[in-house]
Give the backbone structure.
Amino acid sequence: MAGKALNDSDSIDFWPLRPEGQFELCVDGQCYSLAIPKSATEISFDLHSGKTHQQGGGISIVRFDDLPEGDKKVEIWLPYNETVELFDLRSDAELLTDAESDQPTWVHYGSSISQGSNAAGTWTAQVAMQTGLDLVNLGFSGSALLDPFIARVIAQSEADLISLKLGINLVNSDVIRARAFGPAVLGFLDVIRDRQPDTPLLVISPLYCPIHETTPEPGAFDVQALAQGQIRFQATGNDEDSATGKLTLQSIRAQLAGLIHRRMSTDKHLFYLDGCELYSSDDYQRWPLPDALHPGSEAHQLIAQRFIERAPATGWARSKLG
């Protein structure tokens, strides 16, 4: 199902449609083919009334042809921006399930940047395909808010590796302040550690994002950009608000580094990675954020390669990625 936002007023008639969801087929860990369904159920949102309208699109067939001959491992990556209901799966050759896969399971928690917003291939998926990890992507668009129930989900998973990318949604959502940030992070870790005390766990601070580096929450759509048919984000706080405890990306990185390094003294399976090592201010000059918040496809490729290079250097997953 595809979604778009609508408004009854003329001012939002130009709201850009979300991109069509792509199904990506990979063969033996390499991207091989893309397919887009010819139709989908469309859900429209009225921003004034909060009502939704659903227009059925029927069942659509996604077909991949001309695959290499012989035995091969086939994966189909589903679109990050649509809900998919599988009715049938067919092949012109015998299909065997990979139930006894020896791939390490990597559970990753993060924001829309981990989920894949604006990217043809999200960095988490690229890391998984290039390293042979079996990815469970808990990337929540706008909602990586340290919810305790998510910590319980991670704790109850059969994870060989865990990573938590924290920060950006805590800044742009305006739901937490500096006083509560530390206890929320440590409480999240405690819930996971109660069930998984020895699983390698990597905490990643925010990537570089100019609009929120020193300007606090909340984030919002840039209305002037919308008037031109473009989706862009902006920070609506004032730099002075940080003195009242409002979070910025810079303050989160400083707090998070201190919290995790202190906890690492008693947890030998806990590791830390500065997000600016994956995407920095220098990288921004070459690969700007298309909507001022989310990396584009080229930046996702960069982030994936940096992660493969630098995550093992922390000690996390060194035997798996190094």
